[in-house]
Automatic annotation (TrEMBL):
Transmembrane segments: none annotated. Gene3D superfamilies: Spore Coat Polysaccharide Biosynthesis Protein SpsA, Chain A. This is Glycosyltransferase 2-like domain-containing protein. Residues 10-184 form the Glycosyltransferase 2-like domain. It comes from Salinibacter ruber. InterPro entries: Glyco_trans_2-like, Nucleotide-diphossugar_trans.
Amino acid sequence: MSIGVSIKTGNNRVSIITCIHSVINTLKEYNYKIYIGDQPPISNWKSKLYNYLLDKGHFVKVYDEDRTFGEVRNKLASNIDEKYLLRIDDDFELGGEFNIEPLRKVLESNQSIDFCSDLERQIGHGKNVVSGRIRPFGANCHLVGSTLFNLFHSMIGGYRTHNNYKYKRANFTRNLLLIRRNVLADVKWDPNLMWMGEHLDFMLSLMRANCVGAYTPHSIHYHRDDLNSPSERGNLPRNKKKKIFSSKWGIKKIVNVYPPDWYAIEVMRRLVDFAASQ
């Protein structure tokens, strides 16, 4: 299996060190190539890192000015020759719970499945999730009027099985994605979105192209919110998202709907946290 690993980064985010190290360590038995898109300023430590990657045959492109996430992801994808694209963020870690084999097996189990994701464990406080917890991981999106409903799946039942790996089909997953490269000939990231809304917009674009997605609980990647300093992002990305989602998709409101078992588990977790704090 050949894999092109796509990473957009910037602002000298130190999480990229952990991210790249985890990719090299985890995918060492596979035919893979890392593709990185960045922009100035490039610090000394990052220059050394990039020179090392270039010497090893990986791809690094430093743009001369700030670019949107969507624009960079499209440019990176246009350079990828591998069969699959593994789309990750610069603050992801492919740690001890990550296993790319279930994602690969799910894609190979059925040619009608175009992309596969796994679960995400939040490390550091963020995303309205307590550090160490798993984020809601799969949903079906439905547009009713101008409201988009993300109906998240139950954690119990409904799984299919292939080669002893469980998976569920979904048109919304977490944003570590193993994607068939040929899909990206027709589906692109929106180059106008700065970063906010990038993933949901891409999911909607996949839906519009009749692409089928899935996720498997047999792999977990880490979202390392603890590695980067908090930054003030302001309202510009949020306002941009609202404008594009309204004009492009007719979406003015987004509602996440969780099944009863998610609420039951959250209540139990909070009771455990409260008991531990006493």
